[in-house]
Amino acid sequence: xxxxxxxxxxxxxxxxxxxxxxxxxxxxxxxxxxxxxxxxxxxxxxxxxxxxxxxxxxxxxxxxxxxxxxxxxxxxxxxxxxxxxxxxxxxxxxxxxxxxxxxxxxxxxxxxxxxxxxxxxxxxxxxxxxxxxxxxxxxxxxxxxxxxxxxxxxxxxxxxxxxxxxxxxxxxxxxxxxxxxxxxxxxxxxxxxxxxxxxxxxxxxxxxxxxxxxxxxxxxxxxxxxxxxxxxxxxxxxxxxxxxxxxxxxxxxxxxxxxxxxxxxxxxxxxxxxxxxxxxxxxxxxxxxxxxxxxxxxxxxxxxxxxxxxxxxxxxxxxxxxxxxxxxxxxxxxxxxxxxxxxxxxxxxxxxxxxxxxxxxxxxxxxxxxxxxxxxxxx
Length: 379
Description:
The chain is α/β, with parallel strands linked by helices. The protein contains 15 helices and 14 strands.
């Protein structure tokens, strides 16, 4: 079996070599001619999989080690009897941890008490539902929007997008759908961005084109928005002016914990096993986490205590600085720089690996910490 795999997928050789010959390729440079004698193709979100890429090839299995499939022509795959698998949910915890690390950073900088704020969550799937659960632990007022789930009668207490736009914090967790009843392309646009309140914290970790980036840039001065953007319209091309106007900007790495990456590989590995009729045998072994016990510090505000904890595990400020350095890069080199940031992203482990030593007088933070999946040891 010949398999072409994006070279940046974690543990790729270990996972897929047992199926046959594995050929590692830059995901942005996979072309039709490379797939002539290939049986399976495994990609990330940067590779468009359609008739132009697959036409005339013998590819019968396509996997994407990502949670979205907007880069996949699913109709073409179905018509040509090509089996498809995605890694839905693989990095949901990683993205959720990014959201709250970033949110606490803004809360500290702006002297915000989160338990006095409202949050509007757009999309209540694998990630959005986790965001809701943690926001509840913080004591925030929650608004939820998810028309597909609402129509199916799954969940309750949904509100309109107009109501979401009145929240103090808005966070986007939807797939990119271009057209149709559940269109999310430019879901936030020139018209409705005007409804957002001043100083709103706006977070996008879904897909860049869910928000009209030009419209967002133009409205920032009037609304004094606190933007947290991990995804960008037209990646790897990034609106540098918009980047310069964000509070936190990163290179589409919110889901880039080691666990999230390996989960994605594991899901596609299992799908390929199912496709080939092979019994799964590969089990990834992750490196041991160092300094697993952390003492919660004695800073004045709960937000600062929690942010100092979270950034000791995940240095979001470092990711922001590296992304912001793109401003100094020549225009023609920015795309490569963006891809390099993703490829060379520092190792990051998820919160579940860490135990927090919590003084009993800070017991009120235990629920938040446990909802963030930290282990808690009171003393």
